[in-house]
Amino acid sequence: MASGWRKLLEEESEHQWLALGLFLVFVVIGGFLIGGTRNLEGMVLGVDSDENFAFDGGHHIVEIDYHANSDWDGAHSAIVLNGSGMKMYQQFSSEDVNDILPFDDDLIRDVTFFGSDEDGAVTYSAAPNTITTVVNGMPSNQILDDGMSSSFSIQGMATDTSDTILNNRVLITSEDGGSGIRGLGLSGVTVSSSPDPSVSWTGLVYLEDNTYIATGLATYHDDNPAQLGSNIVFAYITWSGGSTAPQVRISAVMDKGSEVHSLTPMKDGLAAAASDREVFIISKDSIESHNITAKAMVYEPCQDRLWFFGELGSKSILRMDVETGEETTKNLQYALPLQPTFVVIEGDSLYIHGYDAKGDSDRLSLDLTLEGSMSSGRGFLNFLFLFAGVLMLGTQLYTIIDRTLLQKKR
User: Are 142 and 135 in contact (CB under 8 A)?
Assistant: First the structure.
């Protein structure tokens, strides 16, 4: 019997080494194939002609926001420019296009602020001391009076999302003395925080606990008094409502990058700001910098990650997991055909608006559900790799058990 066990073990050892060798070859080849599919699939240049997008066909996009809470995936509001001039419009379906400010409206040239929400409500300012809100195609004007007959234009706005009843907002204004910060709540608009003539505020988002973050440019003189330089500047703004002006505390002045091109709020009271040289992760207590070069940035809430896009012709993009800070490079299906100007994520779609090598406006879309799915090359290889691996290991286990039972019967 001992000789029988010895023979069986020798045979099984030979079989197992052969199987393990084959499995090792399979692992190497499978890993190579999976590594070769690290590109993002599902990139589509252009729009479906059947959907009749109003921005298609020679329009240059000045501003655009998509509306997630719409029955049509392409629902959006925008300001576009063509040979006839500029216009502001909304589109909620292929056939439903409504002009807010048409090409022949004089106000369109005076728009200083534009924004819209997921439901399609548009807010803009085209006249001093005035905010116009458009809901279901009906505009209404709010005239802002601080009681001192101040005249100012509105350059930016951020809303305190923690309290929808008070609807407190902080405004970036342009007025005598420079770039100002005002609060807007139930009691009306406040006076401006003391404007700093050396700082021009360009962006503003809400963080948490009555705290906002603003970014802008601070100008300075070099050795040559006639030559101005500028640095990126961040400021924390605190305002909880009432009639007093918001408190502005400049927190950091950065010596890298020309300006912040993207500023977005994120989960858990965080925000991200991107310049052409650095990316900043901002909380109400700290500003953390990363050496990332990008021309455009967008935040994906579902995965809590940031996407960074480079120049026209880039062959890859960078993604960052906000919680861990881990950075991942993903190869593009083909070289980026656009110089990105606007990047938007709505639902399961990512849209890149920009200009091609000829200077023509176009849109690139990416289906975010394809990555890792069975319909993608990487997803299929992952499934095949796991299936074959489990099958081979299961076969080995079955053979061992079967031979053991057979030997016992002998």
Answer: no
